[in-house]
Amino acid sequence: MDTERYRKGSHTVTDLKYHFVWKTKYSYGILKDDVALRLRDIIREVCAEKGMQVVKGNIRRNHIHTLISAPAYMSPAKVAQYLKGKSSYRLQREFPMLQKRYWGRHQWSRGYFCSTVGAVTEEQIKQYIANQAEEPGTFKVWDEPESPAEGERELESDSSE
C-alpha cells in the first residue's frame, strides 16, 4: 500500500482528488507560449500556498484540465475559486495584453467541471459495504427490507376491501 499518497490528520486519513476543467471567457485561445508556461507555474504556486498538490495537468489554448489533490477541509468549490481567481489576477497583472482583452478583469468563464477521482469504483464500494461481516451486537443501518414491512401489508389489504 502506498501510504505517501494519503493525507493524514489527527483522526483522519484521506485521499481526495478532483478533476477540474475550466475555459477562458468567450473561448479565446490565449493560453499559449509564455502565458501558458506562466499559468502552469501560477497553478502550482497557488496549490502550494493552499496545501493542495497538482497531480497532473494539461493547458490547451482555451481551456485547462487539472487533477488536484486537496485536503479534506477544502470543498471543490473553494479549490476552483482559488485556482481560477488567483490565476486570473496574477496573469492579468503580469500580461497587460490580457487586461485589454478582458477589460472586466474576468479571464475565465463563470463555470467549471469537477469530478471526484478515486482508487476504487462506485460498484466496488457498494460491494464492500454489502459484504461486511455481521458480528454479534452490530446492526445494519441502511439495509433495504427484503420484503414489504408489516404495516405496508396491512395498508394494502385495507385498500383492496
Task: Describe the model.
This protein is of the alpha+beta class and 161 residues long. The chain has a single domain (3-117), classed as Transposase IS200-like (Alpha-Beta Plaits). It is 39% helix and 19% strand. The chain has 5 helices and 6 strands, in the order βββαββααβαα. The strands form 2 sheets. It has a 4-stranded antiparallel beta sheet, covered by helices on one side. A hairpin with a 4-residue loop joins β1 and β2. α1 (33-49) crosses α2 (76-94). It is elongated and about 70 Å long. The N and C termini lie far apart (62 Å).
- According to CATH, the fold-level topology is Alpha-Beta Plaits
Q: Could you tell me the radius of gyration in angstroms?
A: 24 Å
Distance between the termini: 62 Å
Quick one: overall form? elongated
Mean pLDDT: 83
Which percent range fits the helix content? Answer: 25-40%
CATH superfamily: Transposase IS200-like
